[in-house]
Amino acid sequence: MSAPFDTTAGNRVGQLGMTLSSIAYAADQTRIESLLADTSLATGGDWTLVWYARDAGNQVFVVQHGPSGQYAIAIRGSVTDPKTKAFWIDWLAQDLSVFRMADWPYGGAPAGARISHGSLQGLSSLLLLKDAAHGDLVSFFRNRARPYLTAVVGHSLGGALASMLAPYLQQQFSTGQSHTDQSRTDQSRLDFWPVTFAGTTAGNDVFADWLSDQFAMANSRYYNVNDLVPHAFQALDWIRTSFPDGPKLPIELIPLLGLIRETLKLEKANYAQPGAGVALQGRIDRGDNWFAEAGLQHSGANYLALLGAPPVNNGG
User: Fold this and answer.
1) How many CA atoms lie within 13 A of 99 on its CB side?
2) Which of 26, 139, 153, 296 lies at a CB distance of 3.0 to 4.6 Å from 17, suitable for a disulfide?
3) Which domains does the chain have, with CATH numbers?
4) pLDDT at 194 over 70
């Protein structure tokens, strides 16, 4: 049986990864298990929950593919309800904490690889999460045979954190497992593969190049060309002129955008995305206002539609 997550599998990876990323937004473990059992989704009812944990800000689960034994890790993106504590942690402590950067502290990366303070905070949170029966993620995987690479998936903040968690775990399991990308010469090295959707930039150009070169992210970073979030915080000028021939950026946001840009320059925070990525062409609704259009283009439902995957009723 071939593994569903394969660096040469193309659109199937996008449909499956975005479906798991959407399931990660479900309210709790019970709802996640119900969605995993749904045979109408791209996951086909073939994936079983084997590890689950959450805290005040993040929710993560691990699934195993029954036919092949492959594992995947799914990380929830930002919560959108400001009445919840998770909203404020996700947005203020992780998503928008970008004005200070730190060196990548876990080894393996080239000198000069730097990441945002928020990304580091988010990764630290994930590493502290514990499943009631199996402990933290590292302990869980140390006790498991993995016949194929393990995908690490997420949408939005979940995508940014996937690009952090995968290289961290790679350093913990550096002997790796074989994978099926015959174009690579380091067949035994890719053990944890980040597959991201609408992710913000987690680090600088050195970090991004490392992800692209060593973690096969050139064909696993999915983004809608009309989505603001993947342009943050690499291409703020694009955001100012977003949605050509459609809704315009509200004039009151222009000074804020300029302040963010100048502050990033002052702090020498040069963010970059890993590789060219897989571009998806969203359709602009010219009747929307700017905020509605921004939300539509970034939504998980829109990404599922662009990838040709069935919708996921995650309650969001």
Assistant:
1) 8
2) 153
3) 11-307 (3.40.50.1820)
4) yes
